[in-house]
Amino acid sequence: MNKKKQQLKTFTTQDVDGPLTTNQGLKMDEDNFSLKAGRRGSTLLEDFHLREKITHFDHERIPERVVHARGYGAHGTFTCTKEASKWTKAHFLNEVGRETPIFVRFSNVAGSKGSSDVVRDVRGFATKFYTEEGNFDLVGNNIPVFYIQDAIKFPDLIHAVKPEPHNEIPQAQSAHDTFWDFVSQHQESTHMLMWHLSDRAIPKNLRMMEGFGVHTFRLINAQNESFFVKFHLKPQLGVHSVTWDEAQKINGKDPDFHRRDLYEAIERGDFPVWDFGVQVIPEAAQFDFDFDVLDATKLWPEEQIPVEYLGELVLNENVDNVFAETEQVAFHPGHVVPGIDFSDDPLLQGRLFSYTDTQLSRLGGPNFHEIPINRPVCPFTNNQRDGMHRQTINPSVTSYYPNALANNQPAPVPEEQGGFHHFEQSLEGKKVRERADSFLDFYSQATMFYESLADYEQQHLKDALVFELGKCKNEQIRKNVINQMNHVHHDLAKYGAQKLGLPIPSKIETPNVKTYPSLSQA
Ligand code: HEM
């Protein structure tokens, strides 16, 4: 049993077959009938057992995640297979054979907690590494790029993707006007849209999906040298999808298809394994590419920057209680350890704010790090106190640093002894609300992706465009989308236009020019 599972066991109820008591420990002699004035009479307010039982039940639900509400998780282990000290001083990556407990939660992005598994959607792939230096969270997706470049657009994106407010339809991300309006107003979404319409968005199961950190992060070694990095997870079972026809049939017969598959595979000992890899460039090489490494709508071509594998992730234990573990887990891309730091990717920078903020309301106050699944396996001590649902009893009189009263108060640790020291990045420039011109190539990688597909995959993508855009009722938006597709590939735009009875745009001779602004004016 790994260190995290041992820790969780200390929070697991042992006496499951003990006497039935109230929450105050009072043994009860009856649990089938409420207390009444006479056998056929009215129920009495003094029935504390009835009141407690119903009150607790009334408050069993917590808000679902604002995105990624439907998810499923499992425990496992990360094993370092190649030490990476030339790039990072992170302890969990510095010794071959070192094992780190992990918890992974897979998710659908758009649908509600009770929606179906096998829908066309991006999948979340979030991993918590319980390292000896604190928790490191890799909060990624199964698609290597994102719809937007700047966090300020995230609420707009999600408002467009989620069911429309007047009728809460549809659960499906892309089958409605607001989705198509948003993506066609944002050329930066085009690359991700290609992945979204491809078979990648209908994975066969969770064990056969890739994971990507998406953003550029930073690695720092013991010599304080900085590298830019993209994180990858490659399933040893390979990447597999279903066809759209299969997806629709599966959803009808078994909305829990993905979670059932993962649960059953782990129960029968068929543990899924992913290779954990990195693409690394020295910080000085960041301008050597025809895209901006800070732009989350771009991937780093693996032919140019090969993925190097540093470890293996295996999922080998199901949870004991889905609510306590999978629902209450709180991931955050800002949970890093010494040797891992951030880049200036403007999407990542906004995420660094969003996760704790949302969890404060989802998990009821500032002490959710004390919930068993979220606790680090290393000691965690500081001068934070009180708050809703505080579990820790801090005996010290003082709760501030520095102080002259206590000799065992939590105090900062020097960098040489493992204290986190933010990378001393040089900064310059004016304070502006703009984006760099290097973010303005919206189509090159979208076209590259489309052209990289086999014929049958291209056909699936074209059919997905027709199916999903066919659900969009607004004629102008449909035309805007066809214009957008024309910037990716004329054949795609032509096919969509013909099938949907729209005008076929003429071929653009140099489609990958840097264009801006909105396509609706194109
Ligand atoms: C979940 C915000 C972009 C991956 C969430 C949640 C929020 C959020 C509020 C719910 C968290 C919770 O309730 O615990 C944002 C913002 C983004 C952004 C503001 C952009 C500015 C992304 C990107 C990725 C991503 C680019 C992938 C790289 C995830 C995943 C989850 C999640 C996997 C589910 C975590 C879980 O399983 O609990 N996001 N997100 N998000 N986000 Fe993001």
Automatic annotation (TrEMBL):
A GO biological-process term:
response to oxidative stress
Q: What does this protein do?
A: Decomposes hydrogen peroxide into water and oxygen; serves to protect cells from the toxic effects of hydrogen peroxide.
GO MF, any single term: heme binding
Q: Which GO terms describe its cellular component?
A: cytosol
In which residues is heme bound?
R65, R105, F154, R351, Y355, R362
Give the family, as the similarity comment puts it.
Belongs to the catalase family. HPII subfamily.
Q: What is its EC number?
A: 1.11.1.6
Q: Which domain of life is it from?
A: Bacteria
The active site consists of H68, N141
Please list the cofactors this protein needs: heme
Q: Where is this cross-link: 3'-histidyl-3-tyrosine (His-Tyr)?
A: H332-Y355
Q: Which residues of the full protein are shown?
A: 1 to 522 of 669
**Keyword terms of this UniProt record:** Heme, Hydrogen peroxide, Iron, Metal-binding, Oxidoreductase, Peroxidase
Q: Which reaction does it catalyse?
A: 2 H2O2 = O2 + 2 H2O
What residue stretches are annotated with the Catalase core domain? 21-409
Q: Report the protein name in the record.
A: Catalase
Provide the top EC class.
oxidoreductase
